[in-house]
Amino acid sequence: MKNYLKELNDQQRIAVENYQGASLIIAGAGSGKTRVLTTRIAYMIDNHIDAFSILALTFTNKAAQEMRERVETIVGVDAKNIWMGTFHSVFARILRAEAFRIGYPNNFTIYDTDDSKSVIKAILKEENLDPKGTYKPSAIHSRISACKNSLIKPDDYENNIELMDSDKSSGKARFIELYRKYNARCFRSGAMDFDDLLLNTYDLLNNFPDVLYKYQHRFNYVLIDEFQDTNVVQYMIIKKIAASTRNLCVVGDDSQSIYSFRGANIRNILDFEKDFPELKVFKLEQNYRSTVNIVEASDNIISNNKYRLPKKLWTNNAAGNKIKILKADTEADEANITAFNILNLHKNENIAFSDIAVLYRTNAQSRAFEEAFRRLGIDYRLVGSISFYQRKEVKDLLAYFRFVINPADEEALKRIINYPARGIGDTTFAHLIVFANDNQCTIWDIINNINAFEISNRIKTVLTEFAFMIKSFQIAVKQKDAFEAAKQMSKESGLIRLMSDDKSPEGIGRFENVQNLLSAIKAFTERENTEDKSLAAFLQEVSLLTDADNQDFKTDKVTLMTVHSAKGLEFRVVFVAGLEENLFPSMMSVDTREELEEERRLFYVAVTRAMEKLYLCYATTRFQWGNLRYCEPSRFLDEIESKYIEYNAGAKQGKIKTPEIKTSTVQRKPVLPVRKPLFVNPDFKGDDVSSLQTGMNIEHNAFGNGKILQIDGVGDSRMALIYFDKFGQKKILLKFAKIKIV
DNA sequence: CGATCAGTCTTTTTT
DNA sequence: AGACTGATCG
């Protein structure tokens, strides 16, 4: 028997050896899931399975990287050839090769949530809808996202009477229209949002048999980590890819499913059993991570959930310390008590800071801890929801790169066109959008033909200079390597000067971030085993990185992060903060059993991160929206049997007061103007525009029938003034127009 | 067009 | 309390 197999227990080893066919590995917290997955892959390669034919999908980029390293230590360089990554990054890679089939440029941009919301805001503005009323950008976005994650496209949505009716009755009748317009706008910008990466991959496999064939035959073995957190599209995609070989191995723990708000669906596990009736089920129930107290307390917690697969974790580890409950007066007090305990652990028990984590429900809670830690000189690393690449100054420079690579990218253009200030304000940009809409072309097309349009000469000059600069950047990107091109753009755009002029502490921080971005590009171009070192490849990679992917957990610092980002990690000591009603469980999630059970699974995840010591903290008062609130201890604390718990003085007797309920201010409903939806006929064939003359009756691909009132200009600048029956008078640049003579 | 100021709204969680 | 928006003025 191979040496690495000897290190496994019987359940683990069987799960490794049975790599053919469909497998469901139900792996409890701390049961050696990653070890099984990596050993299984190594074992496959040892048994002459071609590394190129293995696809392994993980939850984070970091997990993929670590898994690759671990496989490599067993089987060597072959591990480099395995396709390993997150759903999003692997599919983005596939789409980059195949995007042309669905009408996208291969250098398509990936829109992050901010970009998506900004697109929605722009649409709401054009449609004169109130972004604070019924149509909140974030609400629209999450609804669109939910649709995409459940494979409901605009046509499906419109045909679904239930959805349409519920929109009507809730006053959101125009949602479907916004959904379509949002998609159209992204498409026109050559951009895909996170959900499109999944949906478009699905479409690709579904609509192009040759593509499906190609990937089915390329990936003979598919492995999925954290399967409980996959959503419908993700499952549909892997089902398609694995359909011919049926070698699909999924690993997961239903008790750790914490992403249903993102469309994750525990039902995938049930569907998997139905779709692959031949599957073998393996259960990993021995916990190697935590003490008896922690394992049994976590079992107390999770047994309150009704919906779960039967399994029982056990451990051979020591009984360990009791779980300590810390009661604090305020959030600052909570942070101080935590900091104090951390210093004690560090001094008296010689526990490294890097072995300690503070976990909380919401990112906003980090602040108090940061302050306390700074005051007491405790080094910490903050894993936030905003990654390095989402900081404003970094995104600004990235936007230059994005736009140079994909000049259809409107969101990028919006960021850079007047930054640094060039005297191109909102009004001008709004004009450009109107011109682009009228001409059914991109804003970049308009800028390049700006002389044909009615706009002040000052603006024309500035825009022409801008276009000249962008074109010089485009040449740089073609001729130089990613780093040199990036350096040139950061200088010549004026961004560097803008940053270095700002001598405030924040300004210096921003300047450093931009320098760090350039260093990251440098490192990217010098990296081994990355074949595509273009700036475009760099952009794609960083748009899918999370903050956790960027952290190095090796330096000796205490880790601060949300429970969500702690998934998959473990620490010798864990503090779970803010265990109060309306915070953990969240106020938003106590209305239904399903939501509450998800909060409980989240708490379960938090507790099971701890190896040796666990502290559960709560405060009796907390500042929220500038108001002091009284807090009740979390109901979850009562779910742990008292024999596993040790209270600090008076911890259990929290003051119980009903929190004040903030009454919402009555908002006046905006008057909605009527606007005709625009239907663009994709199959429309225009006549030769040079034959057009004043007085002709014509048909336009988007605006329908009209009459030419006037034509002026020559060459590319030739424009027609047209009166449309449905849209009134418009000035249209003939270069882009699709017009038929009637 | 851009800077400043007042008023509004915010909190889940993330690829 | 702090970020963000929109209105007003230079």
Could you tell me how far the N terminus lies from the C terminus, measured between alpha carbons in angstroms?
Answer: 81 Å
Sheet-strand content, in percent, reads 15-25%
- State the low-pLDDT regions, or none: 649-676
Mean pLDDT: 89
Topology:
Elements: H1 3-6, H2 10-17, E1 23-27, H3 33-46, E2 54-58, H4 61-75, E3 83-86, H5 87-98, E4 109-111, H6 113-126, H7 137-149, H8 154-159, H9 161-169, H10 175-188, E5 191-193, H11 194-207, H12 209-218, E6 221-224, H13 232-241, E7 248-252, H14 267-275, E8 280-284, E9 286-287, H15 292-302, E10 314-315, E11 323-328, H16 331-348, E12 356-360, H17 366-375, E13 380-382, H18 392-405, H19 410-416, H20 426-439, H21 443-448, H22 457-479, H23 482-492, H24 495-501, H25 505-525, H26 535-543, H27 547-550, E14 558-562, H28 563-566, E15 571-576, H29 593-607, E16 610-619, E17 621-624, E18 627-630, E19 645-647, E20 697-700, E21 704-712, E22 719-724, E23 728-733, E24 739-741
Parallel strand pairs: 1-7, 1-8, 2-3, 2-6, 4-5, 6-7, 9-10, 11-16, 11-19, 12-14, 12-15, 13-14, 15-16
Antiparallel strand pairs: 17-18, 20-21, 20-24, 21-22, 22-23
Helix pairs in contact: 2-3, 3-4, 5-11, 6-7, 6-10, 11-12, 11-13, 15-29, 16-17, 18-19, 18-22, 22-23, 23-25, 24-25
This protein binds a DNA duplex (15 and 10 nucleotides) through residues 59-60, 86-89, 112-113, 132, 194-195, 197-198, 258-259, 261-262, 361-364, 385, 418, 421, 423-428, 544-546, 562-565, 583, 586-589, 598, 602, 623-627, 665.
